[in-house]
Amino acid sequence: MLNNYFTIRETANYLKANISGYVIKEIYTQEKNKLLIEVISTENDNSRIIEFSIEKDLNYILLKRNYSRAKKNFALLFEEIYDKEISDIKIFNDDRAISFAFGENMEMIFTFFSIKANCFLADNKIVINSFKEKDEYLRKLIEDILPVRTESSDEVTNYLTIAQFLRHSFRKYGSIYQKEVLYNIKLNDKDTLNEEILLSLKKGFEETDKKLKNPEFLLYSKDRSFQMSLISLNYLEGYILNKFDDINELISEFIKNKFRIEKTDSLKNKAEHDLKQKISNIDKKIRGINIQLHHCEDSDNLRKEGDIILQNIHLLNKGDKTFKYKNIDGSKHILKLKEDLSPSENARYYFDKYKKQKGSVDILRSRIINFEKEKLKLESELGRIHKMTEYKTLLKEEKRSEENRNDETSRFRKFRLNDKYEVWVGKDSASNDLLTTKYTAQNDLWFHVRGSSGSHTVLKINNKKEDIEKESILRAASIAAYYSKARNASNVPVAYCEKKYVKKKKGFKQGSVVMEREKVIFVKPKLPE
């Protein structure tokens, strides 16, 4: 509707009434498909900005009182007409184009032909410059680029349907006014054309022409749909109607609504994409844990293989790499042995692996449950975002997400034990360092597994004077044990002390520290519910 012939005609009239006699001060672009023309009045130094957009679905010309100009990354254009006065503004060739005249010979022509929208500068009808594809149009006659439009035949015999007839004989009205005419005379564009219908159509468009000569400036809206018009539209029954004083205000409001919808969609799509990515990552983790779980649930085979070694210990010797045996069903099997271990040590090795894997099953199942809960929360959040339609609401969500992304503490795992205590855990050497050196208070309790590598773990203490619950210390230690290489053990020694006794000396590699005045407790690796 922005590049409808009648919208452009009314825009030309508005511009003529408001900036004829103004002088071109500067023309520049700071966006790919947008031209900005600063004009100034010779009478009162009043300055205005003409904004011309050639975006495919946003092709318009608009008069603005001011514009935020970039300090860099803009290009000056059409310097040939700087300081020249706009002597006249009119529709060009009775088509979807507006001409700014500068005296008798020079004119600037803005075209509104969807894909091929452009701006040309012509001297004596010859193109001397253009906004886009300058090399293609330079030195061409403007009438070759924008030929005079000729009306098509309106004989009934030339067309089968109303749609074909309208497309050829009333194209300049566009779909909006064509729909209105058809609605008022109760016709469908798929109907077959005849003489009676032809007369009705002509009468309908004659009445529309009369209304368009005394236009209104209307914006119809319903949900996320917006339609601008210069006449009342009966077929948009149920739409909310807003009226404006002139075509410039109408175009401005239409563009604002379009931008708001686009920005809303953009924010919504981004939020949904981020949540879907998080859900996808959780699915990958669950699949990985299920693979581990499959191996661990096969732990009974390890126990059986240990039993087989004990049952056949008299046949084995230290240094053997394999042991071949038959099952009750007669099937042959090969059992791998560690050649540096004695037969009894090999049996113990298999039994130890069995115990570790057996202990891992509960941990892995617990991790799957936690990931499934997290996934449900994300899916619920995705459903909530999907229902959002308000730009301001989505903008708040985006700002909140941005704050979370910029929050360094999001690099840590966080567990709330109760109303008093929270446990923070590093994820790698870098986040371990960050947690210990920047985000741990002097009186926080710092945990690390004794004799094994693992994550730095901190029990956050809010009240320095309050005695720390023993249960919370044990739970924090269990978390530290879980995020260590001793995760599969049943009883893990965990050292802890106040953070003020944790020292990072010069030259220590990332994540490395020493502890003083530490205490040691034994716990089972476990995550809180």
User: What's the main sheet like?
Assistant: 6 strands, antiparallel
The helix content is 25-40%
Number of domains: 4
Number of E-type strands: 23
Give the mean pLDDT.
89
Ends apart, CA distance between termini: 58 Å
CATH superfamily of the largest domain: ibrinogen binding protein from staphylococcus aureus domain
For the record, what CATH class of the largest domain applies?
Answer: Mainly Beta
Please list the strands of the largest sheet in the order they lie side by side: 16-17-19-18-20-23
Structure description:
- The protein folds into 4 domains: 5-145, ibrinogen binding protein from staphylococcus aureus fold (Roll); 156-243, no CATH class; 267-406, Helix Hairpins (Orthogonal Bundle); 408-523, no CATH class.
- The chain is built from 12 helices and 23 strands.
- The chain has helices at residues 5-19, 134-137, 142-145, 162-169, 174-184, 195-213, 247-296, 299-311, 343-387, 391-406, 429-438, 470-482; strands spanning 23-31, 34-40, 47-55, 58-64, 75-76, 88-91, 97-102, 106-111, 119-123, 126-130, 218-222, 225-229, 240-243, 322-326, 332-336, 413-416, 422-425, 445-449, 457-460, 492-498, 502-503, 514-515, 519-523.
- Strands 16-17-19-18-20-23 form a 6-stranded antiparallel β-sheet.
- Helix 7 (247-296) packs antiparallel against helix 9 (343-387), helix 7 crosses helix 10 and helix 8 packs antiparallel against helix 9.
- The protein is elongated and about 110 Å long.
- It starts with a helix and ends in a 6-residue tail after the last strand.
